[in-house]
Structure formats: structure tokens, C-alpha cells
Amino acid sequence: MTPTAALRGHARALSRKPAALIALCVLTVIVLCAVFAPWVAPTDPYDLASLDLFASHLPPAWDPGGDPRYLLGTDSQGADLLSLILYGARTSLKVGVLAVSISVLIGLVMGLLSGYFRGWLETIIMRAADIQFTFPAMLLALLIGGLARGMLPVSKQESAAIYIVVLALGISHWPHFARLVRAAVISESGKNYVMASRLAGRKHLSILFRHILPNSLNPVFVLATMDIAFAIMTEATLSFLGFGMPSSQPSLGTLIKVGYGYLFAGEWWVVVFPSALLIVLLVSLNVFGDWLRDRLDPKLR
């Protein structure tokens, strides 16, 4: 089947699943708005010249006392909340994608090696994965993030915050991909085309990357889609607890943390709108990920 025909088949299957189609459309809108935030956002919340302290604590535009210039209201600094949310979503998506990329890269290498060569190498890698599984991902991310911050001078911790969070989340979740890839490699290694490649004298790396890997990627795509939601949620939790992104590089979790302090003062919009977008983003990723799993797994069709 050609890539074009496969794409058309996926499109037809997606059209028969309204929930997945809606989730993909919502996800596409959020991603595009976040990626093009500098052009879509009404203001640049990082530009101090655009802040107006006299416009701080304004409710949404439709609420009595609101200002039409600020659709979702403003925060305590007079920054447009819609702009903050768009930039915050951009940061959250960036962290999620980069963290999952690290997890996939480590997991692919470890899974391929352990599933193909087996023996003592498989034992070492899988026991390391088992040991890491005994630690909750959140606790491990906190530990890695704390160690990384302890190795950096205070003056550089804020600028390196996103790299620390990405590294902590990426390292904390690679065993899931390693186990998944290992199982797929073991299943593929016993098939006739792999046996024929070995008899033909092909090298191990050629068999791994030209034959086994392409046929083992479907479950990785599914898990990666869902894992982006997990990474975004974990980063939001870390930021809410004060161990994630700083206020100078706000993510959705940071905005929720800041807004929570104003919730009981009646300024509900500062925390409700970032929370709503985070929920919609996570639900869309999970719904689309479920459809992708059903579509790519022949046993579930």
C-alpha cells in the first residue's frame, strides 16, 4: 500500500469516529495557536512595555467591569490572560514533545538491543527498567530535577529550567518504551523475513534498522501520543508544586499555580481558563491516542 492510499484509509476511518475527529480538530487548533503564539496572541506578555498596571485584575470582557481589549481578562500585572495562555500552551507542548522524544530515543535503543541480542544485555537493561519502575515517575522527575539544579549555579537555574524539566521527564519514562519495543522486536525477530536476512549475510545493524525497526514503530507512535499528555500533565503538576517552569517562562501549570492564589479573592478567571485549556488538551490527546491505537493495532480492528 502506498503512503497516499494509507493516508486516505486513515482519513476514512477517522471520519467514521466523530469523537476522534473532533479531538484531532481541537488538538490541531491548540497546537497551531500555540506554535504561532507570537503572531496570534493580542499582546506579548514578555514585553514589559506592553503591561499596564492600571488594567490589572480585570475580569473577562463579557463580565461587568471587563475591558473589550482583554477577552479573558488580565492578571495582577495587567498582562492579557489570553496571550499568557497561548504562550503557556506553547511552553507546555514544547516540554511534552521534547520529553517524549528523549523517552522514545532511549527506549528505542534499549528495546532494540535487549530484544534482538537477548542474553546478559537484555537482563541488564530490563533489570534497570524494573528498578526504575519501582519509583513513581513524579518522584523520579523531582529527584532528577533536584540533582540537576544542585549542580548549576543559582544564576543559571531559571534559564536552564526548561532543559532540566525536559531531561527529568524524558529519563523518567523511557522504560515504558523499552519494554514495548523489546516485545515488538522479539515478535518480529522470529519471522521468516528476518531469518532470510540473516541467511543472506546481512549485518545485525542493517537487520535492526532496515527491517525490524520499521515494523515495530506502530505501538511506539500510539504510546508516544498518549505519553505527550502524561508529560504535559506531569510538568503542570511539577510547576504547580514550584519545581517546574518559572514565572518568567510560564507553562499552563505555572499559570494555574499563580492563578490559584487569586481564586479565593474572587478572580476566578486567572485559574479557570488555563485549567480549562489544560483539560481540553489532555482529553484531546488521549481520545486521539485511543483511536490511533485501535487503528494501528490489527488485533483491535
From TrEMBL:
User: Key word Transmembrane helix present in the record?
Assistant: yes
Organism annotation: Psychromarinibacter halotolerans
Predominant cellular place of this UniProt entry's protein: membrane
Residue ranges of the TM segments: 21-41, 95-117, 129-148, 160-181, 220-243, 268-292
Q: Which UniProt keywords apply?
A: Cell membrane, Membrane, Transmembrane, Transmembrane helix, Transport
Lipid bilayer topology: Multi-pass membrane protein
Q: Which residues form the ABC transmembrane type-1 domain?
A: 89-289
Pfam families found in the cross-reference section: BPD_transp_1, OppC_N
Compartments (UniProt record): Cell membrane
Output the InterPro entries linked to this UniProt entry: BP-dependent_transpt_permease, MetI-like, MetI-like_sf, OppC_N
Protein's recorded name = ABC transporter permease
Family affiliation: Belongs to the binding-protein-dependent transport system permease family.
